[in-house]
Design brief:
Elements (H helix, E strand, L loop, with lengths): L7 H8 L12 H15 L11 H8 L3 H13 L3 E4 L3 E4 L18 H5 L4 H10 L4 E2 L12 H20 L8 H11 L6 E4 L2 H12 L5 E6 L3 H9 L3 E6 L5 H11 L3 E4 L13 H14 L3 E4 L15 H4 L6 E6 L11 E4 L2 H14 L5 H13 L1 H27 L5 E3 L7 E6 L5 H10 L2 E2 L1 E2 L12 E5 L5 H20 L11
Parallel strand pairs: 3-13, 5-6, 5-7, 7-8, 8-9
Antiparallel strand pairs: 1-2, 4-10, 9-10, 11-12, 12-15, 14-15
Helix pairs in contact: 2-4, 3-4, 7-15, 8-15, 9-10, 9-14, 11-12, 16-18, 17-18
The protein binds pyridoxal-5'-phosphate.
Pyridoxal-5'-phosphate binds next to α9.
Length: 502
């Protein structure tokens, strides 16, 4: 948690000492070093926090400024703080173990140090843990991946196009892949940029559109990875309540904050599962055009409808390609391990994004692009989707059954999702989602608490439960443990929440 503008008084009171307590023996700077080191080990001085200005600390301790400079230099040499001309000295790390050969943390840039949330990595790790039944990470039924068809397509691609597969490719993506995406999902091929997963698309869009200090409006709650990318580019995030989806509220936010962009998941939203109606979509588009604010629509769950298909995308409604940037991926329909997604947008934006992408990874992987192009052209993709939806429907129904059987309706409320990957459960009364998460983890179950999905606080009584990753029998088998975790959370209302940091 960055502490801004650490005053001398704040610094000493956080450390629980007064300047007069600092020993007067020489060399004085050593005492200052020790003081900061103790603050770091006890956690009262945190990563990203600013130490008091040299002059102020010198005055308070009645020592020369040179003494403070010597202390800060020593701390810097140990990799514990880092000084920036004109900005001050910042805590860069907790002390490294004595045995560490080099203080790498001290070399890490300030912007990288701001990235301390490891929730996503934690989720992925849990999904791999054989001792954990994970309802936390959002993946499709990967055990239904069309492996045989994929193997046969790889064979064909390598027989016919080995040179294309192994050479460097164009940053925008291979022509067959862009063509196939455009004809299956809409847009023109030259409005498509193939990216290494939608997350990369978000990061490129953030770098492309946001200057530090800009405001971005995001649906609230929203996809965690989008917040990371926007914040990483220096954006201030303002939430638009997606459950109310009140268009007047969105207009007020646009007027008040003059945002640089609006980010929405309009279809089977991550995390709530909610879908915006056609009326709201049209209204959003009208506002975006009126106030000239780009909309990034993240439609990564669009194809995962279990009942009716979703209303048309904002991108397809924006026929003149004025304001909407569409983001999509094969992670939720085929497999996240392929790392292939795409951005569809007006040509100048695709061009700018390609220039940014070439700095990151040159291009998305050719072999995966070629196989995906073949899957789209031959109808293999659509045949797979039919089977995937059937399986997801069974898993959704199993989850409804499990939640009804093992949780009480007065404690857990949920709407049955019409698609996507998640149940969004509301806890009533005193129970906290972080406590449920903790208790469930002790039983070998992973669920996601709601608070990381909020840009501005909230979600402490909400749980995201992914219904697609586990087979119906495993969902049913997890019922008693999840039921116990929830019931016990009502008995331990004050339990300290634990942040899932690695
Ligand atoms: C809404 C949303 N956008 C983007 C992504 C990132 O997808 P990809 O695996 O393609 O990077 C996810 C993945 O969880 C998501 O849920």
């Amino acid at each position: 948690v960055p502490q801004k503008n650490q005053s001398v008084n704040g610094f000493f009171s956080a450390l629980g000492v007064v300047p007069a307590d600092v020993p007067r023996e020489r060399p004085m700077y050593r005492h200052l070093v020790g003081l900061v080191e103790r603050g770091l080990s006890s956690g009262v001085l945190r990563q990203g926090g600013r130490l008091p200005p040299e002059r102020d600390l010198a005055r308070a301790c009645r020592v020369s400024r040179t003494t403070v400079v010597a202390a800060y230099r020593e701390l810097e040499a140990k990799g514990l703080v880092r000084g920036y001309v004109g900005r001050g000295t910042f805590v860069s790390a907790a002390p490294e173990p004595e045995t560490a050969p080099f203080a790498w943390r001290g070399k890490v840039s300030t912007s990288a140090l701001q990235m301390s949330d490891s929730t996503v990595r934690h989720l992925v790790r849990m999904a791999w843990d054989p001792n954990v039944v994970s309802f936390a990470a959002g993946q499709p039924a990967l055990d239904r991946f069309p492996t045989d068809a994929f193997r046969a397509a790889v064979d064909r691609v390598l027989t016919r196009h080995a040179a294309v597969a192994w050479h460097n490719g164009p940053t925008e993506g291979l022509a067959p892949c862009r063509d196939a995406i455009a004809s299956r999902f809409g847009g023109a091929a030259d409005q498509i940029l193939v990216v290494s997963g939608a997350q990369q698309g978000l990061d490129l869009l953030a770098r492309c559109l946001i200057d530090p200090g800009d405001t971005a409006i995001v649906d609230r709650p929203t996809y965690l990875g989008a917040m990371h990318s926007f914040r990483g580019a220096g954006a201030r995030l303002v939430g638009w309540d997606i459950r109310r989806a009140d268009i007047d509220e969105l207009e007020e936010l646009m007027l008040r904050y003059r945002p640089k962009l609006v980010y929405l998941n309009p279809t089977f939203q991550n995390p709530t599962g909610q879908t915006l109606s056609i009326r709201v979509r049209r209204d959003v588009l009208r506002l975006a055009e009126r106030y000239r604010v780009p909309i990034i629509e993240d439609e990564t769950s669009r194809e995962l409808h279990l009942d009716e298909p979703a209303p048309p995308s904002l991108f397809s409604l924006d026929e003149r390609r004025t304001v909407v940037i569409h983001l999509n991926t094969f992670s939720k329909t085929l497999a996240p391990g392929l790392r292939v997604g795409w951005v569809a947008a007006a040509r100048p934006i695709v061009e700018q994004l390609s220039l940014l992408k070439q700095r990151v990874d040159l291009h998305a992987q050719n072999l995966a692009q070629l196989v995906i192009a073949e899957f789209l052209e031959t109808g293999t993709f659509d045949r797979h989707l039919v089977k995937l939806r059937d399986e997801h429907r069974k898993r959704r129904d199993a989850m409804v059954e499990m939640l009804r059987r093992h949780t009480s309706a007065s404690q857990v409320r949920f709407a049955t999702p019409a698609g996507g990957l998640y149940f969004w459960c509301q806890l009533s009364g005193q129970a906290r989602a972080r406590v449920v998460q903790e208790l469930a983890e002790r039983e070998g179950l992973a669920v996601m608490p709601g608070d990381p999905f909020y840009p501005d606080g909230g979600g402490t009584q909400e749980l995201r439960v992914c219904f697609t990753t586990q087979a119906p029998d495993r969902i049913a088998a997890a019922g008693p443990a999840l039921g116990r975790a929830i019931a016990d959370a009502y008995r331990t209302p004050g339990a300290a929440p634990r942040i899932p940091m690695s």
